[in-house]
Write a structure and sequence with these properties.
It catalyses: a (3S)-3-hydroxyacyl-CoA + NAD(+) = a 3-oxoacyl-CoA + NADH + H(+). By secondary structure, the protein is α/β, with parallel strands linked by helices. Helices cover about 45% and strands about 15% of the residues. It contains 27 helices and 19 strands.
Amino acid sequence: MIEHPNEVVTKALVRLVQVGGRKAAIITLDNGFDHKKPNSFGPGSLRSLDEAITAATEAGPAFIAITGKPYIFCVGADITGIPFLTSREQAVELGELGHRVFARLKNSKIPTFAFINGAALGGGLEVALHCHYRTVSGGAAALGLPEVAIGLVPGWGGSQLLPNLIGVPGAAQVILQNPLTQKVLRPKQAVELGVADQLFEPADFLERSLEWAAAVVDGELTVQRPEVDKDMWEGVLFFAKQQLDEKLHGAVPSANKALELLALAKDSSFEDGTAAETQVLADLIMGDESRASLYAFDLVQRRAKRPVGVPDKSLARKVTKVGIIGAGLMASQLALLFVRRLQVPVVLTDLDQTRVDKGVQYVHDQIDKLVGKRRLDEGTAAKLRGLVSGSVDKSVFADADFVIEAVFENLDLKKQIWAELEKIVTPEAVLATNTSSLSVTAMADGLEHPERVVGFHFFNPVAVLPLLEIIKGEQTDDATLATAFAVGKELKKSSVLVKDAPAFVVNRLLTRVTSEIFQAIDAGTPLEIVNEAMDPLGLPMRPIALLQLVGPAVAYHVGETLHRAFPDRFAESANLKKIVDAGLPVMVDDEINPEVAKLVAGGSAPLSADEVRAQALDALAQEIRIMLDEGVVAEAQDIDLCMILGAGYPFHLGGVTPYLDRSGTSERVTGRRFLPQGVASLPA
């Protein structure tokens, strides 16, 4: 019998209630903790549900309903138990257990209902899909089948039930598109798609759901569901396969397996379809991609919320006003973020009033857009607009507790700004720099209070990418660092402590890859070849598209910084300088600009795509080992967290180090693995 030794069992508790003179059995899922520790299904939880279904059935009710504890229905399988599955047979047993228990709700002669009162993800949504009818609370935070994002597939009936309930286009959205774009369904969307039959407001959700269920059972209400169109099934999946190949290039096995299961759902019996699910799930559970995905998921869910090396939070100073030096696009994005999250006065400065006014107007316009999207109410929006102001006079920073600069990447300019500002702000005010590559220590050098200067490096677009690299200069004190991390938390960013080293983590590694790419280009490798070289990894962007996003001038500037620091590893590229000097876009209509291709043509030793990829991966492994030896971050896990959250590296790679380990690159290049055996991969 499969066991999870550390499982927090979600108990299925049965109670009988009277509804309009009829007896109903309610099964409530509850692990005994509040919403911060959601319900999940491990072996013990499934067995508890099995017993509850038996007890509910034997009570002879008019209907059986399953619901969850406050705010949480169930968030799916207890993935913390997956590392304890050491054989494929155990994985098959877990799949079959879930199928057997859930199928009792589907096959029940007594009508079954799911009252989705809160978050319902993965196996949580699948158990609801097995019920004959579903209501959903307007307060349910998220609904979905996110398994593909962590290297798995819906393995307890979702791939077979959902397409036959709402049609294959909607099912492909929920099972493939949403997980790969980190989206979930909201309650209203779930009803519109047909995932749920009825939406009720949270205040009286259970009462309304019971009344609705009684009316359905009594025949007073008939649930209408449109017939599923099977004529377009193959066409939808063909189009989905094309999109997957274009985006992932076959690098994510779970996505292709999910497509196969959706295809099977058209004509196969439910029993055959779910048997196939079990086999596919077992294969994926015992594969390295799912282990790497679960490792990445754990980093994002746990390590990101408990950063390593942070001083005691009691040292953090209160921030009641924020100053932003600059009013360009980055500075304006920062102003919007600070005012939304901290809701304190935020003031921008720049060289002239026109620039200041433009920056303030940008923030106001973005607030208006949020109101239009109903993400802000008008009262809050009015308050936020009133908190944002601008001035050309830096004396407005005199009472600011936290000042961040977002000006051009020039060390002398930044030193001059801080020297001027130090005469204005209080001695305790934190001075933060959004530099992407310059030394925080050098920036603070010569100041009267260098201990209050800290790196606070955001990633663009600021509102989307969750990573915040917090850089400790040589003299940065604990109070400053604690304040920086406290502010980062209020901004809802995932902060990682980084040593003051050239280009920090993400930009250093991306620039090392870019350096290798341009060495290949300089050697005569066509742009098309280098652009496709990394496709087998399934990265979010190809190298040339990433160069377009970052901007050739910015990439060249960061490259220069790193070349000066490490000339033996970061080469200067004549071709990258040509592109910068020409001012040409490297991409036009999502294709490589032929003018740029012509500009960099030449070279006598072109490489194949495989050779380019091997060269880039070897360089990554070398650079990561050097960074860890230098103490740029505490552990390899922080490298992976930075690359996932700051560069969009995918979960199926585990960031970067698990892939380098399992491909043998780490040991070949550096002589040892980055992670212990069994971490982010199957034990040897």
